[in-house]
Design brief:
31% strand
Length: 159
């Protein structure tokens, strides 16, 4: 049974959030509503999707309704940070592009760093080193090594 707060907040929670950690490089897709102006000549509001790509430097309040992340990126030499609520209705999609290898919960020190020192190492993932188009049969290597060894043993005993 859910308590009252869970019952009230559950319709507003997003179920499809990826696992975001501090140090990850993410791409945010946000819905922006532009108000009508006289300069553009448009008489109604215009919606568009704005993409913001950067490094997650802080994560607050977990995955709950009030959870948020701070994303930082450098634009023409100027650091830009966005604090984004995870369950905002204006947040359309979050893509995790790469996972960073960090040893801190908050990466506020990146605000002071410039150039190479502001880079974050990426985690190495285990991948199989198989050429594209190569066919792999299970246990084919194990069977061939057993037949080679058994043949050597027969030859050694007969000599």
């Amino acid at each position: 049974m859910q308590n009252k707060t869970e019952q009230i907040f559950s319709p507003y929670l997003k179920a499809d959030l990826p696992d975001i950690k501090v140090g990850d490089t993410v791409r945010l897709h946000q819905k922006i509503i532009l108000s009508p102006t006289e300069k553009t000549g448009k008489k109604k509001e215009v919606e568009r999707v704005q993409v913001f790509e950067g490094v997650v430097i802080a994560k607050k309040h977990g995955r709950g309704l009030d959870g948020s992340i701070t994303v930082r990126k450098i634009i023409e030499g100027v650091g830009v940070e966005k604090i984004v609520p995870l369950h905002s209705p204006n947040l359309i999609k979050i893509e995790v592009l790469s996972h960073g290898r960090v040893r801190r919960a908050k990466l506020y020190y990146l605000r002071k760093e410039r150039g190479k020192r502001a880079k974050i190492k990426t985690k190495e993932f285990l991948t199989s080193s198989v050429a594209p188009g190569a066919h792999i049969t299970p246990n084919s290597d194990a069977q061939s090594s057993q037949t080679d060894n058994s043949g050597d043993a027969d030859n050694a005993s007969s000599n």
